[in-house]
Design a protein that fits this description.
Length: 134
């Protein structure tokens, strides 16, 4: 079975789990590791480019939540409801700090939650389409 064929036969839940697997998140971890190393050797340069690390940290945080929910056998609907709740809270109470880093972190976390919500909805849509075909 080819990788494409295997992916096509996966359930929405399996596809979602694959999207937040260690392999899929390796780049984000590498970004944070690179920032950590650069902070020790060239801190000013590292801080100038910390936006990528903030984005990586936000995505890893949300992916961690998704992995935990999947490991606890949360339904895709439960996950969607939780992600929607986080999105509503973030929209209702956005960061309004004088610190650009706090505001950037809040923006990146909101984008990570939106991406998670889209992935969850794609998984639900996939399963609904498969059920309709059966």
């Amino acid at each position: 079975m080819t990788a494409q064929t295997k992916y096509e036969t996966m359930t929405g839940r399996e596809r979602l789990a694959m999207s937040v697997s260690d392999e899929a998140l390796a780049f984000k971890r590498d970004t944070l590791a690179e920032l950590s190393a650069d902070l020790l050797t060239k801190p000013v340069h590292a801080l100038r480019w910390c936006g990528e690390a903030i984005e990586a940290a936000a995505r890893l945080s949300v992916a961690g939540w998704m992995n935990e929910a999947l490991s606890k056998d949360a339904s895709l609907e439960e996950m969607r409801t939780a992600a929607e709740k986080r999105m509503r809270h973030s929209a209702q109470y956005p960061a309004r700090s004088t610190s650009p880093v706090i505001n950037l972190s809040d923006d990146e976390e909101r984008m990570a939650w939106m991406d998670a919500l889209l992935k969850i909805e794609e998984a639900i849509a996939h399963d609904e389409a498969e059920a309709a075909r059966a």
